[in-house]
Amino acid sequence: xxxxxxxxxxxxxxxxxxxxxxxxxxxxxxxxxxxxxxxxxxxxxxxxxxxxxxxxxxxxxxxxxxxxxxxxxxxxxxxxxxxxxxxxxxxxxxxxxxxxxxxxxxxxxxxxxxxxxxxxxxxxxxxxxxxxxxxxxxxxxxxxxxxxxxxxxxxxxxxxxxxxxxxxxxxxxxxxxxxxxxxxxxxxxxxxxxxxxxxxxxxxxxxxxxxxxxxxxxxxxxxxxxxxxxxxxxxxxxxxxxxxxxxxxxxxxxxxxxxxxxxxxxxxxxxxxxxxxxxxxxxxxxxxxxxxxxxxxxxxxxxxxxxxxxxxxxxxxxxxxxxxxxxxxxxxxxxxxxxxxxxxxxxxxxxxxxxxxxxxxxxxxxxxxxxxxxxxxxxxxxxxxxxxxxxxxxxxxxxxx
Amino acid sequence: xxxxxxxxxxxxxxxxxxxxxxxxxxxxxxxxxxxxxxxxxxxxxxxxxxxxxxxxxxxxxxxxxxxxxxxxxxxxxxxxxxxxxxxxxxxxxxxxxxxxxxxxxxxxxxxxxxxxxxxxxxxxxxxxxxxxxxxxxxxxxxxxxxxxxxxxxxxxxxxxxxxxxxxxxxxxxxxxxxxxxxxxxxxxxxxxxxxxxxxxxxxxxxxxxxxxxxxxxxxxxxxxxxxxxxxxxxxxxxxxxxxxxxxxxxxxxxxxxxxxxxxxxxxxxxxxxxxxxxxxxxxxxxxxxxxxxxxxxxxxxxxxxxxxxxxxxxxxxxxxxxxxxxxxxxxxxxxxxxxxxxxxxxxxxxxxxxxxxxxxxxxxxxxxxxxxxxxxxxxxxxxxxxxxxxxxxxxxxxxxxxxxxxxxxxxxxxxxxxxxxxxxxxxxxxxxxxxxxxxxxxxxxxxxxxxxxxxxxxxxxxxxxxxxxxxxxxxxxxxxxxxxxxxxxxxxxxxxxxxxxxxxxxxxxxxxxxxxxxxxxxxxxxxxxxxxxxxxxxxxxxxxxxxxxxxxxxxxxxxxxxxxxxxxxxxxxxxxxxxxxxxxxxxxxxxxxxxxxxxxxxxxxxxxxxxxxxxxxxxxxxxxxxxxxxxxxxxx
Lengths: 401, 636
Prior knowledge:
With about 400 residues, chain A is an alpha/beta fold. Chain A has helices spanning about 55-70, 85, 90-95, 105-115, 185-200, 205-215, 235-245, 265-280, 295-305, 320-330, 350-360, 385-400, and strands at about 5-10, 10-15, 15-20, 25, 30, 35, 40, 45-50, 75, 100-105, 120-125, 130, 135-140, 150-155, 160-165, 220-225, 250-260, 285-290, 305-315, 320, 335-345, 365-370, 375.
């Protein structure tokens, strides 16, 4: 059964929601599903913007078929070839054999690699080109590495609609609503939007900056991303978030304490630190157990807060593996501009501190506080002065200015 | 190519020779004996126009050619090797870079005085860890906005202390090797610019050689010489020319020894005839003369090429290498001809024999000259693979806080020190016996030569008692002054301190002493000399007289009878802060790979330090093959 929403006079959302997917990209847990957005423009010619994952292929095809209302599909614009959006292409080609596929040269290569036979359907479009489909003229803007190298965004110059590919996307399914203003976005969606951006596109801040710069010259009225809600009001809100995330600037002054604890001793130390911070007036703190919190949440939170304290046991003379994984993910996602402190624990040969320091120092613009501490097995009376010094230093850094 | 000098060049030779014979030669023995710089003679060289021979008249130069300059150096060295190098270092090293790379303002400001000898020039490149390998330069010039802040030291500097202007090389961009080096004109007398003791050299003792010490010297922006980051190129170009001067000096020394030996061989009679009639001596003289002529032709032709602005780097290296190698042979043979007489002080050949040796060493050892020549012949093939990673030399004692307490009165500085130590966790209610062996001591109060007369050791004892510390000293205090038994001196060759707190009183910080305290958790330095090396190796420092500071510190730490200290817990030390070097990164639009000049691209044999624009034609992203024009530049 079809399930579509109208965006402007002749533009329709023809995507689908997926609640059954447990892991996005088979890595990031989803608890509230995800939407695969596709859009259909009914001009003198009909134009479909992207497709959907095969898992929702049937719903997607029902939607496109219904919205076309018996007309043929003239064009398919592929902004992004990642299979969660491109998996249904072949079916489109079979159902509407005269359709022309407009996409970037790199996308053509990648689609062939994935096994799609575009053949005569493919027409390459380049940065700066545009096509008129009747009333609407669509301009193509390349967006390399705004997730993948082939990516582009399409801009409807007639009514200011930006088809932004993975940019401005979010986890979470739409469930009947479509527009960001139909949700309490800040409360219900922002965390998922952040977790999506930081884990999927986080590494490519400079490229996102480059795209934002290009977009700055356009009169954008509506943003249609490939996941999550469509923006038609308060676009400045989401742009501001993107500026923070893509420049790796924290959204808030606050301390994230992430600990790796085998028997609760490091955990106890982390709790003591949090309490000491609260005593010093620093209450915007979040405490996470690295073993039981999926790293995508840790990364997302870290893009939000200004300060990070890592507390880890030493494990096989190294960093506790989940903590190591977190650090590797920070590096992979290009995290920068944070003030950090380190608490290491080790019963006979504490090593995790030096090793965590080494990784943090390999990130860009990380300010490592001198105050850090070494626990031998558990926090004891003798450590308290050091713990106080650590809390003093973190609090002073958070509260300054 | 010419094989004979011109009349004008020979006229200059006569003029310089007359000056050298009358004004320098009579002094040469005394200068050598007393390690004395011939100030008066150098002043007269200026009056005679010898201090600016190969420079344009409009700046006060003589407007003569490079060969004339080489002849002048040769003639001075012929009577005194030291006088030769004074002129060579002044002209080629101290003046030429300003002439070649200076702005018009810099030239107008400095050249008239330098070219007329009113002022003397010098050149500062060599450092304890950088000489042949300029990439090891550690002197830094930090851009402070309005000026550069110069810190570091230069060793073996010819004309050091006597010169008025110094062409100094310093790192302006760390971590990128020779591309991060720039040059500055530094004037004698600027605040923070001091000289070390004059070296007691084997030869060329009439030339002044000392260490240059830069301690927060403010260098005005306009004293940057040439472009930022082009220091290495300027150094290399300067040394190319400098080699002609050294080659001429070596030639002159050898010529002087040769002439003396020939003379002596005619006078000295053995077996009934002058020894020059012995074939063994005659053949020696023949060989010496041949080598001299070969060397002279090499030197003069290199000078001729430089004058003609033809490439001369290889030729000047050949001239320097050959002339200095044969200078050793010729002075050796000359001394041999003199026999036992030549072995005596006061004999010219004895001095020339010693003077000659330096010429195979300085301004590029002869080994480096061969590297230069080989690279000209073989091109890139002469280069071996990448040198093993450069080891960064920080302070000998590792990373230190280097907080020098300068604010307030002596009492306030001492109080600040005690507060800092307590904050670090030192408990002065406990202590160890004063005679605890150094290696087992948790704290040591140590005396250096700056402690003064023996009665001041009482100050050390009092402080040790108040700080709950054992007593130690530097090597000279135990070995030379014998204030303490030998087993209490701290250093690489003595006892090593591995405890927490080391209070160095009047210790300047000789390398071997510092190596003995590098394990200390905290080093406190108290010394009168703000330039003492110990201040670069300490966590806390107070500049002041031990006689004033120690009693104040003793009073501040005194808590009466000390409790016995618990077993030592090793305290934490300062850790190095990683500083991001501001630079551009280039990000591939095809895959996100980052090109960083600090890393280079080993897969494509691009060495670290290669700027993005210097990447070879056709370079592509090592990960995805995108071309260089598809990269996005970002600042970090």
